[in-house]
Amino acid sequence: MTSEERREARYQRRAAKRRERRLALSKSCGDFEDVFSYENLYAAGHICCKGVGWKSSTQMYRFNLVTNTAATRRTLLEGTYKSRGFIEFDLYDRGKMRHIRSIHISERVVQRTLCDKAVNPTLKPAFIYDNGASTEGKGIDFALDRLECHLQRHYRKYGTEGYALLYDFSNYFANAQHWPVKLELDRRIHDDRTRALANECLDNFGPIGYGLGSQISQTAALMLPNKLDHFIKEKLRIKGYARYMDDGYLLHISKEYLTRCLEQMKEVCASLGIALNLKKTKIVPIKRGFKFLQVKFKLTETGKVVRKMSFETIKKMRRKLKKFKLWNEAGRLVAIGKKVIRKVFSLADICKTYGSWRGHMKRGDSFRALARMDNYFKSLFGFHPSNKTKWRAAICT
């Protein structure tokens, strides 16, 4: 046996072991009847109702949760389950118009069960560690902490010298392809009915694209550039790399090497049907600082990583507080069908919104900006957010 034949034999043995592990993991999730058991659907119904209990559709579904769960399971087992379509609307967010296609609460329960019990457990081992979006135990804090960790490791080797390649996908959700994700589902989910339902949920969005507002689309969007993640980590050997959905960065000492990496990344993205946004994709010096997930990172000469929150988020919150003040005093006009009513916007709603924003701002080293915003809040509503007595009284009203 030649050396090439021995190498090929070793590769085939490793590939066979990987297939066995994937099959064992998929079988541990159970067959179609196990995944969509009454207990799993009932628990998913409770989870899906959290945070949206103010919706009339959610209230009606939860009021009849037992019978709705039984009816959903019956249609799934009989093979008569069909999508009810989408609730579509446009949302203007951070200077961009986003088209949302939200699914009905009954379908959200099915997708929650499908993702939590079958799709996510089987796809999760394929992700790199630094893929931090829409994954249990990770999130935006994880992604920001990993960037800080990568910058500190870079500093210990090269100091403040080096460059960061920042990339972004162009119109990612609208142009996302289905076939790469379906290939992974074929490899990793053994049950034909479970896999067929997952593919059907993807096809409901059309031949191309995923809809914002659906759990299966979030998981698929997370999986689609997975080949690019492994290419950068394993082929390009970039250790300081991470991706958060459609935003990512690469850290390296050489600008020329990052330029070559970018050309190879374009080829991999083209093979997956993904287009890089060339306006937002750029190579910048690390010492100058750069923005990732609306947070500006700067590596100082002492090795400290400073985070500064985006000034745009502060301006946006100031405008919101002004509008909240008017709504609180005069009421908010809300259209229900053809009827327009005046809805009271309570101080409790304002405090909860501002408290959530303060929690986000604490991710960065923006103490002075936060202090100025607290004083601005006091000038509008008459008490400082640090006054816990009045703060709790406002929330409890």
The proportion of residues in beta strands is 15-25%
- Terminal CA distance: 81 Å
Multimeric state of these chains?
single chain
Question: Spans with pLDDT under 50 lasting ≥5 residues?
Answer: none
Widest β-sheet, arrangement of strands: 4-5-3-6
Radius of gyration: 24 Å
In words, what does this structure look like?
- This protein has 397 residues and is of the alpha+beta class.
- Helix content is 57%, strand content 15%.
- The protein is built from 17 helices and eleven strands.
- It has helices spanning 3-29, 32-35, 38-49, 56-63, 65-78, 105-123, 140-158, 172-175, 179-188, 192-203, 215-223, 226-235, 255-272, 311-330, 347-361, 367-381, 388-396; strands spanning 86-93, 96-103, 163-168, 240-244, 247-252, 282-285, 290-292, 295-299, 305-309, 332-336, 339-343.
- The strands form four sheets. The protein has a four-stranded antiparallel sheet with strand order 4-5-3-6, sandwiched between helices. Strands 7-8-9 form a three-stranded antiparallel sheet.
- A hairpin with a 5-residue loop joins strand 8 and strand 9 (305-309).
- Helix 3 crosses helix 6 (105-123), helix 6 packs across helix 10 (192-203) and helix 6 (105-123) runs parallel beside helix 11 (215-223).
- The longest helix has 27 residues, at 3-29.
- The protein is flat, with a radius of gyration of 24 Å.
- The termini are far apart.
- The relative contact order is 0.09.
